[in-house]
Amino acid sequence: MSRSLSLFGGKNQTIVGVDISTSGVKVAEMEYGSGGFELLACGRDELPPTAMNDRQVVEPEAVGKVLSRLLRRADIKSRTAAIAVSGSPVITKTITLPNHLSERDMEEQIRLEADQYVPYPIEEVNLDFTVTGPSPHGDGNVSVLLAACRSETVDERLAAIESAGMTAQVVDIEEYALDNAIRHFVLDEQSEGVVLVCDIGGSHTMMSIFDGTKSVYRREQGFGGRQLTEDIMRHYGMPADEADNAKRSGKLPDDYATEVLPYFIDDLAQQIDRALQLFFANSNEYSSIDRIVFAGGTANVPGLPQAIEDKLGVKSELVDPLARVKVGGRVRRALARAEAPALLVAMGLGMRSSDQ
Fold it and tell me: Is the domain of 331 the same as that of 312?
């Protein structure tokens, strides 16, 4: 029988969003009060190159060691976490069910029908669901979002945080955590126009298009900051760890800005343009966007937004999620501001501290 694990539910007064990505771990401890969300603590640290394979945890203890160090450095005492899963092991599907079913009956109905939605043996997955509202067909039924993830993927991440002394209160879907953070800390109800949020990770880039605060398109590209690291390795003959450190610190030879970085910018611009053309080709409503907002660890590459703006002719800027959240006294502000573009998913997970 498939196991049930809360992908949508489970709330706590304070919770630590733990974002385990290909290249590093990001944490954000959030609290919700009368004045909205407060960022109590945050931080980021790099993972050993062998700890992850693509986005799967290979060495849980190595990840846990980095997480433990990060929690101490950020002075985070809470050991209640929200984590996220992503990639091919995750399946989401919106289905329609009768609105008279109780939650228990709905769960039984979903389990009976799950085989047709989930391409894995049902005993090897974690399932959860949430009612999202009335069916759009006006037939009196309800729309239900079903989420499933291979148990192996969840267990790897649970093992990693448990080795750091943490307990998972919530297992979320990474793209939904990102969307929540974007709506609260990047956009607002007064946001006008069509915005592309380009979250550049180590090996993948999530491109999310919003019309106001409504998500209208999402596409993941197999392109990320690792490409720039590999370019540096090839050009300067550096080993991977030295190239990655040089990229992050900006301590590179003078010809980096003319001989290496422009090729990465060109590739990124092509990836963005390709995603936009696919969006426009499949939409009867949209033919342009108004601005691009960059997030993710690689968004901090100096001059990246302006270079993309020059190439694509679309206003581009670096995300600043701290501008719309109260920042607590334990947060080292200069460090947090430098890391902020990489913290969106962790902040979206930390928002699970609230029913909002």
Answer: no
Question: Looking at the structure, do residues 194 and 141 belong to the same domain, yes or no?
Answer: no
pLDDT single digits (tens) 170-185: 999 999 999 999 999 9
Which pTM value belongs to this model? 0.89
* Closest among 56, 73, 77, 75 to 65, alpha carbons compared: 73
Average pLDDT over residues 318-332: 91
Contact 20, 174 (CB under 8 A): no
Distances 102 to 3, 97, 105 between C-alpha atoms, Å: 20, 11, 5
Give 88: exposed, middle or buried? Use CB within 10 Å, 0-12, 13-18, 19+: exposed
Query: What whole-number distance in Å separates Cα of residue 268 and Cα of residue 255?
Result: 20
Residues 168 and 209 grouped into a single domain: no
pLDDT at 114: 80
- Please give the residue range of the domain that contains residue 297: 190-318
Same domain, 222 and 349: no
Same domain? 155 vs 263: no
Amino acid identity of 134? P
In the structure, what pLDDT confidence band is assigned to residue 1 with cuts at 50, 70 and 90?
A: very low
pLDDT in tens, 111-127: 887 888 888 888 899 98
| Domain total of the chain | 2
Q: Which residues are CB-neighbours of 89 under 8 A, at least 6 positions away?
A: 56, 149, 150, 152, 153
CATH number at residue 203: 3.30.420.40
**Same domain, yes or no: 160 and 26:** yes
Distance CA 308, CA 47 (A): 29
Torsion angles phi and psi, residue 234, rounded to 5: -65, -45
Our CA angle for 72, 77, 82, nearest 5°, is 100
Q: Does 247 lie in the same domain as 196?
A: yes
Residues 15 and 117 in one domain: yes
Phi/psi for 55 (5° steps) reads -110, 15
* 84 close to 174: Cβ distance less than 8 angstroms: yes
